[in-house]
């Protein structure tokens, strides 16, 4: 990976680069569409068998897929469904009720905020509306009775099995009386239309939220996704995610790119970056985010990824958001924050008000009158309000008409280490301020 | 309308007591007079007459024959009746025994023993006609008082349908004849000069009582023939409503009476017949009638048409001679005979075919100019004309004798043509009998008569009328490929172990079963009401046992060991609102769909008034606790009804908690619930073992020890049979995964253990072990902070300081605050931590969602 090599490849066509960027954007942003499965073969098999039995034998079931955010619950389900649809015994033999708003909709707890909406959505997706005719869907009670009647009429051998996918399952638990869940699980446990209810959730304690009779009807099948891979597998995933597919039009470039990725994965700095990320989170989405930032650096003149790109991306990825804000503050505002930091030190995290901060600032000004311009109080107040708007400071209670603004109690939302870090990189910071920040007693 | 009329009716005996029993202090009478105050009419009903008796549902009166009338010791007027039952009174599952379509006008001679034949005379509504027919006969078509002419072909004894015995047949026929005579004599009984004013009165009363909608319909009739037939239909209903009270209207019945031949119908009857019928039509077509006269007279002049239309409508009356004539025509036209036979054969699906054959045959046998439709419209016009003339005559005050010039052929023709119009009633029985819900509401049951022959010939069942959800039958699409049957032993076992699989018997609940059975059975036999409260934790077989009881009782009722009963089930969880319970119960019982408040009123009325023929209702209320409302009126009503004298309501209430009555019910509700309680204990391991082995009888899929392990484990945790079955099912799957070759494998201990672990192991420990390094350090930092502060709660800022210190110790790069916040929210989403709203940033408070020991255990292992 010398610079010479890079220079040789400087002549790549812009089409090729845009193609590369398109591929990676799709891969990293639509993380549920064509994503590959990593380390969940067993879960995959379990779920596939379960759904196959539903479609082929008409067996009713219920299951929960539980795993932290970004662990691939939806990806797993999509994969299983895709493979299931390709099987020939299954084609056209499974009705799916997915609820979510997107192209591939799922029954999502965020969209179907109550049972009424959820029922309408189910009726719509089951296309029972044509039976309903021109009926205006008025009452919730009728809807429920209608749907239950429809499901009750079916039986194991003759009715088309229905798959209910409940995304954000934990939110359905909060619906009144858990009516929807009770009825779905009850159908899955009785000789009616075969249904399989799959819930997706990230909450480990979801079973405790179910009411006892709902819980009793749930089959207690739980499929856990844990991101249980180690760092070696993580590197492999990194390589797979970053390599170009074989069907890439420009084969020589694809070859070059893939070789480069292979080199990168053995590079020490890249490994450090990845290790760092891996230590923070095993979530593949954050890896995608990092790679997305890195791939954005690829241009016509810079066609291959380098370790430096990844490092830069990692730096961006890791930066502290509040410290970033502190960078853009004026000297006066920095001074106020330092004053607050000292107050915090002195009073051990007790809340303060503007007057206290102003007094602290005045003390500093009086000592260093030669280096700092003495601002008037309204100006300082304005600067303080700016900090308030940036949410670096937060009032303890809502501002009322009665209380004077100067005496509202506040808390600083920054840690002293964040302030010190921000000051280190603050451009053109006066030395006096830096000294004052280091110690409130620096004048002694 | 019945209820409105009832309030005005006065019942008095007709004539002197025939005989009296001094001991019992009863005296028998031969007739009863029903006087309506408002319309000042009297109706006499005598022994042997057929009557309508108030039913459960105001729209569906019962049909009966009056056998005896007497006054008992307490001066109550009583009547003894022979019941006839309508199709809808026969259980749904028995109806298919009939193997033919039954029109709404057909009733069955009731030989069910369970019904009370002794009723209060005040429940009699009016007299009607019930005509005995032979099984193969088509229903004769009577238009004018369709509402009150019934036919009986078969008898029903609770189990099967039988052809009427010749004995009964002749008796019924006799009754009809007698009735005709009595009707004549009763006409003499009332002076004829008050005839017209009385009639006018009633008519105006009824007119004002009918909704303006009907009038609209009448006006609309000029637009389309089909609609006018509807209007006519409504008019005939109107006639039906008031004719028991008016002697003129009663005379109309004689149209079919055997004592008179068709030709001898009096003009005044035509008046009665057509006056009501046509005054909606007449005013709107005053100009057109003149021209039509010729046309109709042409029709009348052509002799072959009348027998022809008679042929089509099979018969106009059921006099013996006419039957003879009918069979003659059958003999004459072999084609119709074949048709008739085929009708008998394939009653259910062959209707349409028959229709078409009728349709094709008609033009061929008739003069080709007249399609049936035009014939009918012509008939209408004719009747309109006649009506006009009659009204003219009437207004001039002419006597009835003058009206005789309206030839009898006219009247007979008009009646036959109207029968023609009604011909399609038997033609469209499918719609009528298909759904119970339509059937029970008379409005919609009348609907099929709206069909015009033209429509039925085209075989388009009500085009353009969207199916309303009320009678829509919701259905999930059928599957395309057939479901596979289990192939291996394990698959078979899995199928049997599914909770939905219904076992032949319910093991381990014999005692409870017997108790509930005895309770319901005794109440059924006594014909009284009562409540029973059943409690038990989920999965202990409460609902299953109750259903089994009901199934057995239904079986017994079918075998005539018990009086028949209705079974209604509601589930609190399947209701969106407690008050919806009323709606569902009412829909189950009567098929009406009304609002909750109205349903409550109707149900209260239903259960508090005595219904002679009403069956006992067994009501299962599942998940009772969800019917709780602030005022508890739903529960109160539910438990109050069985205490009513005539309710005949047995309630089995099911809930989870044993002390529900004491805990959430008000005293007055709990008191009504009574003390008949039963609690289902959680299953012991032996019982669970028995349940599994009974389900697996004959399938060798499980090791004995494995079953025992599951049972013991579940019994120790909850005693929930569902859980037990689910574990076994999962174990078969694991076993299937594990087996490599296609050798038969049975479920062993290892598989069961794995399944149990999968279902019961706490996910937290595993989740922590698979968390990233910094997440684990964060948890450690939390533990450290808890230990330092001695409080099980910390802010992120405090934890952050510990975290940085720990990272320094391990030689790791310390994370930024943003990263810490991300870690914290991730752990919070998994609910390993409980966190506050994130807008507090560093000052957000954090708590562990599991014990510190668990966290330490999970972290130490590595």
Topology of this protein?
The complex is a heterodimer of chains A (444) and B (862).
Chain A lengths: L2 H6 L5 H16 L11 H17 L3 E6 L6 H14 L8 E4 L8 E2 L6 H11 L3 H4 L7 H14 L8 E6 L1 H4 L6 H10 L6 E7 L4 H4 L2 H6 L3 E4 L6 H12 L8 H16 L1 H13 L3 H12 L11 H12 L2 H7 L3 H17 L6 H14 L9 H13 L3 E3 L14 E3 L3 H10 L5 H8 L6
Parallel strand pairs in A: 1-5, 1-6, 2-4, 3-4, 4-5
Antiparallel strand pairs in A: 7-8
Chain B lengths: L1 H5 L2 E6 L4 E3 L4 E4 L1 E6 L4 E6 L3 E4 L8 E10 L5 E10 L5 H4 L10 E5 L7 E3 L3 E9 L16 E8 L4 E3 L2 H24 L5 H15 L2 H9 L4 H18 L4 H6 L14 H12 L9 H14 L3 H8 L7 H13 L1 H12 L5 H15 L6 H24 L12 H15 L1 H4 L1 H6 L1 H5 L1 H5 L6 H6 L30 H9 L12 H17 L3 E7 L5 H17 L6 E7 L8 H11 L5 H13 L7 E7 L10 H8 L8 E7 L4 H5 L2 H7 L3 E4 L4 H11 L8 H14 L3 H18 L10 H12 L2 H7 L3 H17 L4 E2 H15 L6 H13 L3 E3 L9 E4 L3 H9 L2
Parallel strand pairs in B: 9-12, 11-12, 14-17, 14-18, 15-16, 16-17
Antiparallel strand pairs in B: 1-4, 2-3, 3-7, 4-5, 6-7, 6-11, 7-8, 8-9, 8-10, 12-13, 19-21, 20-21
Helix pairs in contact in B: 5-6, 6-8, 8-14, 9-14, 10-15, 14-15, 21-31, 22-23, 24-25, 26-28, 29-30, 30-31, 30-32, 31-32, 33-37, 34-35, 34-37
Characteristic key phrases:
A: 444 residues; alpha/beta; Rossmann fold; Arc Repressor Mutant, subunit A; disordered N terminus; B: 862 residues; SH3 type barrels; Helicase, Ruva Protein, domain 3; 37 helices; 21 strands; elongated; ATP binding (chain A); AAA+_ATPase (chain A); AAA_16 (chain A); DNA-binding (chain A); DNA replication (chain A)
